[in-house]
# Entry
Amino acid sequence: MDYKMTAQQRKEYKASGGQKCPWCDEADLIFEEITVDFNTVTQEVFCPGCERYWFNVYAFTHIDTPEEVEERDINGKEINRGSAS
# Structure
C-alpha cells in the first residue's frame, strides 16, 4: 500500500483538524492512545475506509494556568461569559 503523502494532503489534513483521512476523506477515524516518549507525543490514527494508518505528532506550543484553560473553548477561543449580576 502506498503511504506517500503530498504537501497538499498534509495541508488539508491539518486544516480538517485531523478529522478526515488524508487519502480518502473518511471521517470515521480510529484514534489510538497518545504515546509520550521524552519530548515527542504521537498518536496512531487508522482509517477503516482505505485501511491506512499514520501518526499524528503533537508539539508543545505554550503553557496555561487553570484559569486560562477555563476561559477558552475547545478551539482555543476566549469564552465571553459576560458580567455576573
About this structure: The radius of gyration is 17 Å. The chain has a mean pLDDT of 87. The helical segments are 7-15, 66-70. Residues 13-70 form one domain.
